[in-house]
Amino acid sequence: MKEDHAAVTKRKKNTIIYLIVLVIGVFFLTVFLWYQGFLIPNARFANEYPIKGVDVSAYQGEIVWDQLEKQDMRFAFIKATEGSAHVDRYFEMNWHEAKDTRLRIGAYHFFSFDSDGKTQGQHFINTVPADKDSLPPVIDVEFYGDKEKHPPDVKEVKKELDNMVRMLENHYGKRVIIYTTSKAYNFYIKNHFEDCDIWIRDVYGKPSLPDKRKWTFWQYTDRERLDGYEGEEKFIDVNVFKGDEEAFREYGR
C-alpha cells in the first residue's frame, strides 16, 4: 500500500524538526564545552608547534611554578606593569619563583593609551630586572574599556608606543615583542614597528596577519585548565612559539 501523502509530509516535517533541534543542541553543547575550557577549537593547529608556554598575572593568584612546568610548559610571560604606575602585585614573587625552574621567563607591560610612552617605559624598566637569559620585554597593545568604540588617534598612539619600544630596546638590548589582537594590530601595528616581534592572539583559528608579516608567538587559548594555581581566574592563557628547539634556545639571547 502506498503511504498516505499527509503522513509522508508529516514525517518529513518531523525529520526536519529533529535535525534542527539536533544542530541547535550540538551548537550549544560546543559553546558550553568551550566556555568551560573543555574544548579548545584551534588546539589541532596549535599542536603543530611543540614549544608551549603560559602568560600569567595576579588573576592566577599564587602559582606553584614547578607544577606548572611539569605540564609540558617551556616558557612564561609574567605581567609586570600597566600604564605609568601600576605594578602587578604578584610580579616580584612570580619572577623570582619562576626563575627557580627550567622555564624561560619574560615580563609584559599592559600599554595605556592615556599615558606617555616614555613614562610607561621608565616604569617598566624600574620594575623588571635586566637578564640576558630572559625572554624579550613585551608590550601588550589591545583595546580596553570604551577604546574599541572610540579608538585613540593612530598617529599619537604610534608615537607613544614607538617611544616606549625604543627605551626598552636600548635598556634590555633585545628586540621588543608586541602582543596584540587582530583589531589593535590593524589599527596601530600593521606595516609599522618592523623591528619588533609579534605575539598575536587568536583563540578561534590559526592566525594570519593582514600585511603578511610573520608572528613569533601565538596565544591560541585563554581557557586552558592547568594545575598549579588557584586565583580568582580558573583559566590560564596558553601560547606557542613558532620555531624549533634550537631557535627557542637562542631566541632573545
Question: Helix and strand layout, with pairings?
Answer:
Elements: H1 5-35, H2 43-46, E1 52-56, H3 65-69, E2 73-82, E3 86-87, H4 91-98, E4 104-110, H5 117-127, E5 138-141, H6 154-172, E6 177-180, H7 182-189, E7 197-201, E8 217-224, E9 236-241, H8 245-250
Parallel strand pairs: 1-2, 2-4, 4-5, 5-6, 6-7, 7-8
Antiparallel strand pairs: 1-9, 2-3, 8-9
Can you give keywords for this protein?
253 residues, alpha/beta, eight-stranded mixed β-barrel, 9 strands, 36% helix, globular
Description:
It is a single chain. The chain is α/β, with parallel strands linked by helices and 253 residues long. It has helices spanning 5-35, 43-46, 65-69, 91-98, 117-127, 154-172, 182-189, 245-250, and strands at 52-56, 73-82, 86-87, 104-110, 138-141, 177-180, 197-201, 217-224, 236-241. An 8-stranded mixed beta barrel has the order 1-2-4-5-6-7-8-9. Helix 6 links the parallel strand 5 (138-141) and strand 6. The longest helix is centred in the N-terminal third of the chain and has 31 residues, at 5-35.
Quick gist of this model?
With about 250 residues, the chain is of the alpha/beta class. It contains 8 helices and 9 strands. About 35% of the residues are buried.
